[in-house]
Amino acid sequence: MERVTLRTIGVVGSGQMGRGIAQVAAQAGFDVLLHDQDPAALGAARTFIESSLKRQVEKGKLPEPVRAETLGRIRAVAEPGAFSTADFVIEAVSEDPAIKTRVFATLDAACRTGVILASNTSSISITKIASATRRPDRVVGMHFMNPVPVMELVEIVAGQATSEGTLETTRDLAKALGRTPVTAQDYPGFISNRVLMPMINEAVYALYEGVGGRDDIDTVLRLGMRHPMGPLALADFIGLDTCLAIMEILHQGFGDPKYRPCPLLRRMVDAGHLGRKSGRGFYEYDAGGEPR
Ligand code: CAA
Q1: Nearest residue CA, atom 52 of ligand 1?
Q2: Among 230, 234, 188, 191, which residue's Cα sits nearest to residue 212?
């Protein structure tokens, strides 16, 4: 694959991850096309990015003219057809295999043949997503961590057909975005969630079995292992529904009972106690998502 200079990055999905990726790409000097099928979500993403950049100016970390230039590089687009001018596309829509494959089929039709299509999926098979396109060699995982503007890692996931050239271009892009890429093979959970989610699930088991209370468990990991957040607070931050969905993928994908989701995790999801986004999980949150 010949090396191309990437100028315009398309981002599909303007939720928490998509807007973070758009912000980071614009701050790194790329032109960004941000698409979401919901116009209200696109507007909300723009407001969020504006206030995030404004906070950086107030903290003296970003000169005012750079803030304005950065915002000027992000263009909201209502139709995926606008991605015909994109040089690289990153998808960050809902973590649902049916939605992802539909989006990839649309992107395959809208984008030029050489363009790489990356998915920010945290757990869905890249090989499966790639099979919805006519360019499986140019489909790759590009898994950013939340909050995107803060976290340095991008997990690059190689599907069955992903070419070495695609991996190299994607790693180069991650570096251009100021991130550190690590390459993982396309098996359930990749590296990040293969290791993180069983730890979170085990913390929920420790609570369920009464080994310790919520604060005891989180304090052990924060002060004993220097994790920035305890595993139960982190589960709330990620979303308990997302944690459960990833555990189900590990459980089904490996067929190994060591990955069985904790019944307490399942019960909390059934109750709608999903963590920060629902106002209640292992902790309680105010309307701004801050712990009470
Ligand atoms: N967007 C942008 N910047 C943010 C932010 C956000 N949502 N949240 C925090 N920040 C920035 C703050 O502005 C602050 O910046 P400065 O240092 O420049 O002032 C910095 O991050 C630290 O924030 P705070 O002082 O408010 O709070 P903190 O020190 O407690 O850090 C945290 C907050 C960065 C979230 C930290 O607790 C942390 O690193 N937690 C772990 C997060 C983690 O593990 N993420 C990965 C989750 S797994 C995943 O994403 C993938 C998956 O597949 C499930």
Answers
A1: 122
A2: 230
